[in-house]
């Protein structure tokens, strides 16, 4: 596949770090649709929307938001980021994303994960002690729903399906990615199933994640899959502006506020001093933070290490103002993406 660049957003409702004002959820949802529209217009490849079930996030139903985006865009792929499959019903997940896929004429994707935010488990009546078992069983069902209709299926944690007729059916097989945050067992699960890997790198040095990508490809080969046909995506926070200094100055107050107030351990945020944030913007840091050239350089450095297929930038975490978000998306699409695609294509050609 050609190298892809995308953006994702959790829809966090972080109070403004200067005024303390809280954005209306409806306004924020409409902002997300506008962001996806601009991302489509400037030629980005993917827009992703997260799923959270708390008052400090606007998006609890990503498929509904993606359906709105489907009507406002023409080419961009529309993905969850992620679907908390362990606490959802795979039948409804499939139906919802099949609907998005039909509305968008074949642009829907699912990134399935276990969920680092766990509020949805008690909310929907699931036992957190079955965290791993729920995901494994529901992923098995989701993949069978994708591949078969009618479906006959039986598990341990859900009622069986006998000649289940699950509709609507999409016109193609919807891509299902596995989200991994650094657990080797999850990497091996994706490899065993022959599913693409979405690797979240949200801190530290990205080089420390090379063993996970290597494990994924080795395990895939051992399970009989061609590693060259399995895609790898790197997902990290970031922000793009006209220069590195501007990117840092614009995004840091919001990121710090979001890191403190929208953390997965509610009420127990993680301080992010400015010097630590700037460290993530260095060549070895995990974040895509900087002007166009810094983002190009980091993407290419990562490509040399991972030989991956996609980057997804969690742009403007903490509710960076919309005008700044739209500018960042435009810069990513017009000044970064064309250069990255050309350089990676050139590298691939020289290695053939």
TrEMBL record:
Q: What is this protein called?
A: LLM class flavin-dependent oxidoreductase
Which Gene Ontology cellular-component terms appear in the entry? Answer: cytosol
Record the organism. Answer: Rhodococcus erythropolis (Arthrobacter picolinophilus)
* Sorted UniProt keywords: Monooxygenase, Oxidoreductase
The yes or no answer to whether the keyword Oxidoreductase is present is: yes
In the UniProt record, does the keyword Isomerase occur? no
Residue limits of the Luciferase-like domain? 5-304
**In this record, what's one Pfam family?**
Bac_luciferase
Q: Which GO terms describe its molecular function?
A: monooxygenase activity; oxidoreductase activity, acting on paired donors, with incorporation or reduction of molecular oxygen
The superkingdom listed in its UniProt entry is Bacteria
**InterPro entries for this protein:** Bact_Lucif_Oxidored, Luciferase-like_dom, Luciferase-like_sf
């Amino acid at each position: 596949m050609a190298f892809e660049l995308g953006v994702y957003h959790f829809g966090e409702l972080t109070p403004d770090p200067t005024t303390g004002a809280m954005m209306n959820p409806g306004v924020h949802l409409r902002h997300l649709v506008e962001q996806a529209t601009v991302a489509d217009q400037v030629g980005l490849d993917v827009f992703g929307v997260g799923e959270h079930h708390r008052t400090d996030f606007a998006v609890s139903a990503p498929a509904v938001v993606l359906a709105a985006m489907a009507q406002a865009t023409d080419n961009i792929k529309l993905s969850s980021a992620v679907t908390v499959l362990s606490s959802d019903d795979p039948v409804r997940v499939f139906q919802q994303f099949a609907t998005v896929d039909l509305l968008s004429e074949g642009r829907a994707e699912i990134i399935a994960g276990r969920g680092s935010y766990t509020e949805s488990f008690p909310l929907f009546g699931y036992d957190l002690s079955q965290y791993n078992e729920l995901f494994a069983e529901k992923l098995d069902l989701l993949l069978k729903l994708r591949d078969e209709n009618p479906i006959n299926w039986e598990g341990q944690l859900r009622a069986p399906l006998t000649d289940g007729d699950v509709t609507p059916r999409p016109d193609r097989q919807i891509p299902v990615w596995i989200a991994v945050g650094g657990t080797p067992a999850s990497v091996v699960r994706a490899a065993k199933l022959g599913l693409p890997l979405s690797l979240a790198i949200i801190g530290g040095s990205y080089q420390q994640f090379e063993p996970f990508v290597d494990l994924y490809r080795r395990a895939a080969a051992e399970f009989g899959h061609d590693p060259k046909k399995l895609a790898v995506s790197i997902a990290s926070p970031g922000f793009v502006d006209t220069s590195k200094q501007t990117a840092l100055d614009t995004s840091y107050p919001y990121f710090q506020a979001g890191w403190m107030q929208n953390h997965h351990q509610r009420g127990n945020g993680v301080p992010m001093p400015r010097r630590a944030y700037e460290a993530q913007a260095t060549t070895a840091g995990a974040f895509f933070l900087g002007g166009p050239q810094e983002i190009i350089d980091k993407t290419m450095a990562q490509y040399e290490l991972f030989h991956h297929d996609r980057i997804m930038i969690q742009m403007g975490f903490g509710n960076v103002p919309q005008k700044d978000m739209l500018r960042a998306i435009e810069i990513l699409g017009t000044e970064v993406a064309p250069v990255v695609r050309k350089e990676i294509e050139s590298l691939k050609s020289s290695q053939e």
